[in-house]
Amino acid sequence: MDIKKICVMGLGYIGLPTASLLANSGFQVVGVDKQTRLVKIINDGGVHIEEPGLKTLVNAAVNSGFLKACEHAEKADVFFIAVPTPVKEDAGRKVVDLSFVQAAAEEVGDYLQQGNLVILESTSPPKTTNTVVGPLLEKRSGLKAGNDFYLAHCPERVLPGNTLKELIQNNRVIGGINPESAEQAHSLYKRFVEGKISLTDATTAEMVKLIENSYRDVNIALANEIAAICENAGIDAWEAINLANLHPRVHLHQPGPGVGGHCISVDPWFIISEFRDEAKMIRLGREINECQPAKVVQFLNKLLKGIKKPVVTVMGITYKGNIDDIRESPALKIIDELERIGVQVKVYDPHVMQFAYETNNLKEAFRGSDCALVLADHDEFSFLYPKELATLMRTKQIYDTRNCIERNLWEENGFRCYLLGQGNEAL
Ligand code: SAJ
């Protein structure tokens, strides 16, 4: 198949890096997004998300004329669908919201031609490619999937914060609706992927992606449970987990204030909602992780006991460190709950410019505070100067839920330091 032009539906955390990588690989790329503001930013060579190296890549792609952003699809040889698949509440149950995938598939269907290849990259429940995307494409185009055009699912696997490297280096799984579709997708991916590419059917590929994120969610839940046990037993969970991980067949993840982001906190629901009887452990993992923010507030409450009109400085509101993404961040639940119980919250996050709550500069966030609460492990936090911050605070305490601060330094400057997952006899 001679590929000259590629249309990428969705210019978010996956679509934009993919589109710019393809453009810089010499393909003519049209990136499609429904947000006018975003289309303009990209066509001006800018980016709307923080991701190392992305701005340079987008700038080069736009300036070379190989990438343009539009609000509507165009005829092309290949179509990528990289739109969000969030969860929604339906009769009290969390189920996948496929509306963005459906809308993208319908639009692609309008431009689809004989011999084209369509690739679904969005994380999707098993059978979505075969029973949702395929039929919509067929209906809108009048063509037959597998005969007139190729269709494959190739789930994205990149880690935000390391996207550009992982887009090229990660191993990939490609699932075709038939072997020819998988082969066609393979011939495209091998032009920019250095990792191993494995071919399978579309439904297996969908399941593989959900298994990966469910594995990580359950593993983090186990770490969070171990943290609670260690707190009770007066042991440092971080040390215990690190030591256990020295075993060649143990790979425990880290505890924290909860699991956020648009993937790990979302994707396990795609399995739970469809396989209610079977997905027992995956559900429990989700429940444990969803309870972490409440546990953080519970512990914080002990530190604020006896303080009238307590003030807390939240350090980092993103779902993890060194990114600007606040989607599903545990910080949101924690701040809401603190405000509900009458704690004044001051937010400091050097990565986030816009937030539902007012963000403060560093000094303002620490002024009059009774406890600093570290929720995201931004690198900047290890360069803070506790001596100066100590003079601003009313009560010198810091509660680190990520094990990322230079504890000795804070203690030397008069702070009482608390760590999630570490037993503390004084409390
Ligand atoms: N977290 C912990 N403890 C850990 C690791 C993570 O509490 O040991 C928390 C983080 O703080 C964060 C959440 O989990 O709140 C998720 O972060 P993450 O770094 O585990 O994952 P994501 O959501 O940024 O990206 C994941 C990745 N999946 C896997 O590693 C299996 C990525 O490769 C996927 O492409 C991405 O989901 C996705 O788009 O599905």
Give a written overview of the molecule.
The protein is α/β, with parallel strands linked by helices. The protein contains 15 helices and 15 strands. The chain has helices at 15-24, 36-43, 54-63, 99-111, 128-141, 163-169, 179-189, 202-233, 237-244, 268-274, 280-303, 330-340, 362-366, 386-392, 407-412; strands at residues 5-9, 28-32, 67-70, 78-81, 87-90, 93-96, 117-120, 150-153, 172-176, 197-201, 311-315, 344-348, 371-374, 397-400, 416-419. The strands form 3 sheets. An 8-stranded mixed β-sheet has the order 3-2-1-4-7-8-9-10, sandwiched between helices. Strands 12-11-13-14-15 form a 5-stranded parallel β-sheet. The protein is globular, with a radius of gyration of 24 Å. The model has no long low-confidence stretch (mean pLDDT 96). The structure holds ligand SAJ. Ligand SAJ binds at residues 123, 156-160, 212-213, 216, 220, 253-254, 256, 259-261, 263-264, 319-320.
SSE map:
Elements: E1 5-9, H1 15-24, E2 28-32, H2 36-43, H3 54-63, E3 67-70, E4 78-81, E5 87-90, E6 93-96, H4 99-111, E7 117-120, H5 128-141, E8 150-153, H6 163-169, E9 172-176, H7 179-189, E10 197-201, H8 202-233, H9 237-244, H10 268-274, H11 280-303, E11 311-315, H12 330-340, E12 344-348, H13 362-366, E13 371-374, H14 386-392, E14 397-400, H15 407-412, E15 416-419
Parallel strand pairs: 1-2, 1-4, 2-3, 4-7, 7-8, 9-10, 11-12, 11-13, 13-14, 14-15
Antiparallel strand pairs: 5-6, 8-9
Helix pairs in contact: 1-3, 4-5, 8-11, 10-11, 11-12
Bound molecules: ligand SAJ.
